Amino acid sequence: MKNLVHPKNFVIFPKFFSISNLERPQLKDINLKEVQPKVFNVELNREKQRNTFTREFWLELKSAINYLSNYSGCRTIVLSAAGKSFTAGIDLKEAFSQIVGLSSDESIDTARKSRLLMELIGSIQDCYSILEKCPKPVICAIHSHCIGAGINMICAADIRYASKDTVFSIKEVDVGMAADIGALNRIQKIVGNDSLTRELSYTARDFNVDEALNYGLISKIFENKEDCFDGAVETARLIAEKSPIGVQGTKMALNHARNHTIEESLEFIRLLNASQLLTEDIRVAAESVLTKKKCDFKDV
Q1: Which domain CATH number covers 79?
Q2: What is the per-residue burial (b if ≥16 Cβ within 10 Å, else e) of 177-206?
Q3: Are 159 and 140 spatial neighbours (Cβ–Cβ below 8 Å)?
Q4: Which residues have a Cβ under 8 Å from the Cβ of 124 and sit 6 or more positions away?
Q5: Are residues 44 and 83 in the same domain?
Q6: Rounded to an integer, what is the distance from CA 176 to the centroid of its chain?
Q7: 215: left (phi over 0), alpha (psi -120 to 50) or beta
Q8: Which residues make beta-bridge pairs with 77?
Q9: Average pLDDT over residues 22-37
Q10: Residue 297 lies in a domain
Q11: Which whole-number Å values give the CA distances from 149 to 54, 84, 125, in the listed order?
């Protein structure tokens, strides 16, 4: 009889604990595959629609990342896209039809309409926030167009690379709204130029990879889409070879420090490492230095 309490079968879900077999999600518009040992590629694949986001597409992304977050065989994630565009943003046809339909419904008062919109916006925010909450580092391999919702998405990732043909835009003001699913909330934590952030957000103008690199939004530029993906996979491979206890603890500490004082974040890492320093990974790493052999860390 299968041992259901084996650590590999013990999956932690929000708000409660469950012993469960982790099932790979059924995905229609996202490709999910292992491209290197412990490195998984999440590929957006609404190619004909330029990878524009519908509510169903957002939920698929959330499902894929949630699966990899809990799958111990994954240590790093590369987020890329099929087709000519990384993403052209929100599917405006769906978005406008939902908003117009709700606003014109006279059977619902303004307060209740607002609550429905709050619920909708919150559910979409969660679909990008899961990239940030995922314990495994997420690397974006961006190409061609990264517009509107695309900026919101990449700001929740850990590392951002782009091909030299990439055009970025914080596009929301061009459709009469403020960005509400993460860009305005995270980008100031990523870059150090408040003036340029406001210029780009108020004007919705395009900016290229050179400006994005100087701005601090991305960290590397590649010749083309293929090289960008390969570069992201190589970085992911290097990370995947490290101790998952060390890497995941580092992500937790960096995320916490970004939103807290130095004193608070020092207390956080003190409490975290009080348990995590007991890991056998430290012994494995020390033995590797002495024997000059490659480390073989257990999955988490």
Answers
A1: 3.90.226.10
A2: eebebbbbebbeebbeeeebbeebbeebee
A3: yes
A4: 55, 58, 181
A5: yes
A6: 26
A7: alpha
A8: 40, 138
A9: 96
A10: no
A11: 11, 16, 10
pLDDT recorded at residue 150? 98
Q: Indicate the range of 12-26, 182-196, 225-239, 265-279 predicted with least confidence.
A: 12-26
Beta bridge partners of 168: 146, 207
* Residue among 6, 285, 36 nearest 297 (CA): 285
pLDDT over 70 (residue 78): yes
pLDDT at 22: 84
Q: How confident is the model at residue 5 (pLDDT cuts 50, 70, 90)?
A: very low
pLDDT above 60 (res 294):
yes
Whole-angstrom distance, CA of residue 2 vs CA of residue 20: 12
Quote the number of domains for the chain: 2
- pLDDT of residue 18 exceeding 60, the answer is no
Quick check: is 11 in a domain? yes
